[in-house]
Amino acid sequence: MDGSSDPNPGAHVQVPVYSTGVEVLEKLKEQWGSGRKQAYPAMYSSVIGAIILDPAMMVIPIDDHMVHRGHGVFDTAMLMDGYLYELDAHLDRFLRSSSKAKITPPFPRETLRTILIQMTAASKCKKGSIRYWLSAGPGDFLLSPKGCPKAAFYGVVIGNDYSQCKEGVKVVTSNTPMKPPMFATMKNVNYLPNVLAVMEAEEKGAFASIWVDEQGYIAEGPNVNVAFISKSRIWCFLHSIKS
Q: What's a single GO MF annotation on this record (predicted)?
């Protein structure tokens, strides 16, 4: 039958069935071996218990509660000239977020720090950032994390040649509702409001959007803070302006 005259061509799709990991691995390597630049030179997974350099293997379990329930937190650190910028401050915030999310890390703080440093060194990346997550872990598809034997820790190195913007950018105020304070101060993985705010800006030809609170005060952007330089050339953060 000619596909163009078939009223329901999608009904005739044949989906492959893979019964072994070898077949899946071949498809993953096929996807990543098509000349794509390797933007993620290293990943760590506590599920595997090792640093992974092959991007085809940088995966997490589908039953991880961070995937299907959003029960996870994250943080980041800039990587400049091979050095991690303010890793300790970000790691402290990471652990505060995990406490609010009621996720107990699988390792003590110093071990988490060591893992991130070793992952960055193994990547041989000199410029970019690292991002790391703490999840309730894999276990089942229920709401409660009781079925998760152990929390999971993941990290990845992201190569990026960041450059300073000197000409300014266009921004718009966002119509997407802001997160409530509890979730805005906890760096959790539910970034759908942030994504929608960025998409809204792009649809209007802008670089980013800015949230304004219910009192009319400027709050923040989807992934950046906002500050002002006064006429006397003083750098003013928003909390000091509002107060």
A: catalytic activity
